[in-house]
Amino acid sequence: MNYKSDKEVRVRFAPSPTGFLHVGGLRTALFNYLFARKNNGKFILRIEDTDRKRYIPGALEKLISTLKAIGLAYDEGPDIEGSYSPYVQSKRINIYKKYAQILLNSGNAYYCFCSEERLKKLREEQRKRKLNPVYDGKCRNLSTEEVKEKLKKKIPYVIRLKFPKKGTTVFYDKIHGRVEVDNSLVDDQILIKSDGFPTYHLANVVDDHLMKITHIIRGEEWLSSVPKHIFLYKSFGWEVPKFVHLPLLLNPDRSKLSKRQGDVAVESYLEKGYLPEALINFIALLGWHSADDKEIYSLKELEKNFSLRRINKSGAVFDIEKLNWMNGHYLRSMDIKYVGEKAKPFFEKAGININDNEKYLKVIDISRKRVPTLSQLVEFAKKFYFDLEFTEEYRAIIAEENSQRIYSYWIKKLKKQENWSEDEINLLIKKTMEDLGVKGKELYFPLRLALFGSCTGPELPTIIEILGREETVKRLEKLINK
User: Fold this and answer.
1) Per residue of the chain (482 residues), what is the pLDDT tens digit?
2) What's the CA gap between 99 and 94, in Å, rounded?
3) How far apart are CA 407 and CA 403, in angstroms?
4) Cβ-count burial of 166 within 10 angstroms (0-12 exposed, 13-18 middle, 19+ buried)?
5) Could you tell me the sign of the dihedral formed by the alpha carbons of 39, 45, 49, 55, in that order?
6) 212 is an active site residue
């Protein structure tokens, strides 16, 4: 479904630099990105860093690098100049103060001089009475003279929204449909904190208007804040944008996805060896489905097929097993050289010498058929690079007379010629059966153990092709009389 309007579609992803990029944040960014691309619009990255208590140095740079690593290119942002710079809210403080003053002048906001101690006590009393903790309006109707006197005395203050307490607020959400909220339940939200910084509610409304945002696509947790935001838009005489509140991400037990129950950081999944393409594909299907219910999509295909109409209202379960399946599919189907490049940091970290590129790509190819992530490729591949270690059970098999006979026989045969093709190895296996009178696991278990460190694994010709004749003979000789 394309968005029909004379206006250019403009959407934004507006995270706070308070640590890692949450997978829920990635989905919000992705859906904004896809909607913009589908409608030839603009995707903006805006940093909402006005909560200075939660600000973490370096988090902004990490967030930007993660978005770039995952492949989501924004059109305007902190490091990409646009018409509405700056795109970091802490650099826009004077703008918010200007609009807060407009609200004070119009009577749609007021100074609140209540101490934190009083507010804490108020909240505790409300909770004891099982009431929704909201401000009681003590400073809502202070006279002009009282306000001037308190300001003169430099009593600390915040600026609150003077939200109407009568009637209801009705709005339409693209996913949730018609929503009606009783105004008496809406708090007089703080707009400017005592430190002079704005809260999310004022800053995001002001910025969304000034940056000409047409659609606000964000998490469902902000749905209850919409009445406050609509009141702000109307107080300024601004057009209200379209609202799209995405369903919650859930754990398999249907609880809200949180770091207490597992990894929720996008960086963590990249560090574990999940491919960006697989993560994007997986995240896209958390709450959205296409008309044909396909499961594998490239980013370009998602850009073409995405529509708001196909976003579900109910929560989406983050199923790690499905992510593993999907990542395994990408590992197996993508160009081997690309997978090799992506896997290199994992091999280098493990201390594996991959200078022999031909061998390296062969190892990648055989490994990716058996494991779902780049990090697990390394664990499988170590058997081709490092000395093998054996359990007591395996040592017993190696020491058996039958195993020793096979090793001696193979050493003698392999040393007679330089190169061995797959057909020649299979012929050697057949000849071993005939000359030594062994077959099945009596033959394969000892050989796989000697060459791969396990009774199960790739076919013998494949193992020998990767190891090469010299290393194959070396591994067999190590086990003679062991």
Assistant:
1) 455 556 899 999 999 988 889 999 999 999 999 999 999 999 999 999 988 778 788 888 999 999 999 999 999 999 998 999 999 999 999 999 999 999 999 999 999 999 999 999 999 999 999 888 899 999 999 999 999 999 999 999 999 999 999 999 999 999 999 999 999 999 999 999 999 999 999 999 999 999 999 999 999 999 999 999 999 999 999 999 999 999 999 988 888 887 655 678 999 999 999 999 999 999 999 999 888 878 999 999 999 999 999 999 999 999 999 999 999 999 999 999 999 999 999 999 999 999 999 999 999 999 999 999 999 999 999 999 999 999 999 999 999 999 999 999 999 999 988 888 999 999 999 999 999 999 999 999 999 999 999 998 899 999 999 999 999 999 999 999 76
2) 9
3) 6
4) exposed
5) positive
6) no
| CA pair distance 280, 68, nearest whole angstrom | 12
Active-site annotation holder among 259, 337, 441, 474: 259
Contact yes or no for 38/301 (Cβ under 8 A): no
Looking from the CA of 285 toward its CB, the CA atoms found within 13 Å total 21
Question: How many Cβ atoms from other residues are within 10 Å of residue 139's Cβ?
Answer: 19
Phi, psi of 216 (to 5 degrees): -100, 105
Q: Is the preceding omega at residue 227 within 30 degrees of 0, hence cis?
A: no
Q: What does the alpha-carbon distance between residue 37 and residue 235 come to, in Å, rounded to a whole number?
A: 32
d(CA 63, CA 476): 50
Across 201-234, b (16+ Cβ under 10 Å) vs e yields bbbbbbbbbebebbbbbbbbebbebbbbbbbbee
Q: How far apart are CA 170 and CA 210, in angstroms?
A: 24
Tokens of 69: 């690593």
